[in-house]
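Supplementary material to the annual report.
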Amino acid sequence: MSLSPKELEYLAECEPVQIVSNFHMKKMSLISGDIGPLRPGIPCQVPLWMAVNLSRSAKCKIIPPDWMNVDVLQRIKHEEKNSPLFTHMPAEHYMAIGKLLFQACPGEIKDCDEVKTLMKDIWDTRYAKLRRSVKLFLSQEELPLFAQVDHLTMMEMCQIRPFLTHSLEQIYRLKKTASLAQAANEESQNMSTTMSSSIGHSQSQQSQSQR
Amino acid sequence: MDLGDSFNPNYFSLPDILASHVRVPCKTEVPLMHFGFLDPALASEDLPANISTELPLWAAQVMSKANRKYVTAELPKLYKESYRDALKADPGVVDLNKMSPNFYQSGLHLSTLNHREAEEVGAILPTVLQVRLRSMADSFLYETKLKTADDENGVSGLKESHMDALEHKIFEDSKKSYKSLLSWLEKPATT
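Predicted assembly:
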C-alpha cells in the first residue's frame, strides 16, 4: 500500500501559508486549530486549502513561501547535484505545494516559469538519485540491513515504495524458505541415522517451509 | 488508491496451487495399486515397480519422502544443473516465462523435495531474483517499451515477456505508481 500523488496533494493542503486578505473575518475555530482573525492588509497564516479557495474568489493575495524564488531554488539544485546523499528540502510537500500555487496564483510568484523549471529539475535530480540508490541497494551480495534515506520527501517515498518493498520482501521470502528447507533436510538426514523422536518437529518445519 | 500487496501465498492462493502442479519425473520404487492409468500403454490396473512416469509436484513431494518412499523423484529439466548454470551465468537474459510461469514459487516447492540437489535449487532462487529485479529497477519508467541491452551502463534490461508471474506483479505495481505520478503532474489541481 502506498499513498497516491492525489492523496499527498490533500496532505500538502494542510501546510500553512501566508496570505493578505482584503476582508474582515472573525477567528474561526476548526478541529485542526484556529484560523484568523483576518484583517485587510495584514498578513496572516492559514492552511493552503483555504488560501487557494480565497484567492480563487479574489478575496486574498497569497504570499509564496520564502523558498519559492529563483536564488534559493538554484542553490538547492546545485547542492542536490553535488551531494551524493539527499539534501534537505525546504518543504516536505514541495512538489504538491508548488503545483497548487502555480495554479492558484502564478502572478504572485516572481519568475514563475523559471521557478517551475527549477523545481522540476530538482525533482528529476532527486528521482534519478533515488533510482540509482535503489539499484545499488539491490546490487549488494548480502542485502544490507539499512540504507540512508534522510530528507526523502513523502512523494518520493511513495513513488519507490511499491517496487522496493515488494522486491525486498520477495527476496527475503525466498531466502528464508531456502534456509528453512536446508535446515529441514539436514534434520531429516540426521533423523535417518539416529531415528530420534523429532519426526513431528521436522515435518512441521517442512510444511512451514512450503509456504 | 491500492497499489497492490506483495505476493504472499496462503493455502488457497491460486498462483501457489498452479506452481505446485509442475510435472516431476518419477520412478516407481514399489508396485502402486490402481495407479495403472498413469501409463495407458501398460493397459493394467496397477503400476509395477521401476516404471518412469510423471507426477505433479504436490504428489511427488509426499510420495518420495525418505520414510515412505514409493517413488524416486527427479528434478524437472528446467531446474537441472545445466539450466541452473545458465541462470547463474546471466540471470537477466533467461526467458523465465517460457521456462516456467511460476518459476520462483515452483522452485520453492521443489527445494523441499527429497532429492540431493533440491537444496541447490532453493539456494539460487534469491540470487536470480535479486539480479533480475536490479535490471528491472528502471524498466518500469518506460511505459511502452523497456530498456534494451544498449542503454547507458550496458546492463541488459529485463524484457516484459521474459518475466515470471512474481516479477510481473512487481513490475505492474511499480508501473502503476509511476503512471499515477505522471497523470498527477499533467492534470490541473482538484481544489
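Confidence is low (pLDDT under 50) at residues 195-211 of chain A.
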